[in-house]
Amino acid sequence: MTYMNAQHVLPEQLIIEIQKYVHGETLYIPKLENEYEKWGASSGSRRRLNLRNATIRDSYKKGTCLEDLAQEHYLSVETIKKIVYSHQKK
After folding, report:
1. Domain boundaries, position 53
2. pLDDT tier at 87 (50, 70, 90 boundaries)?
3. How many angstroms separate the first and last alpha carbons of the chain?
4. Are 66 and 80 spatial neighbours (Cβ–Cβ below 8 Å)?
5. How many structural domains compose the chain?
6. Residue 58 falls within a domain, yes or no?
7. C-alpha distances out from residue 32 to 2, 5, 37, 84, Å
8. pTM, full prediction
9. Is 81 inside a domain boundary?
10. Domain presence at residue 1
11. CB atoms within 10 A of CB 83
12. Measuring CA to CA, how many Å separate 86 from each of 13, 45, 73?
């Protein structure tokens, strides 16, 4: 998050109006809702997790036990269960 001086980007009348409510404080103005990206979309993290989870589900379907999957992927057995069983519901 970057900070900007309001005097550099906002009209003077708008600054005067905002100062009626907040003055000398930091004010956060969120993005428009349609401008948000889902978590991991820009970094590729979401794609990598989806690929990892698909690999785990595929291995489980082929007979690999939960404990072996947990060790292989450095995850707890409970996390492996969530990955394997949550996709079956969808």
Report:
1. 6-89
2. low
3. 36
4. yes
5. 1
6. yes
7. 16, 20, 11, 35
8. 0.58
9. yes
10. no
11. 21
12. 53, 19, 18
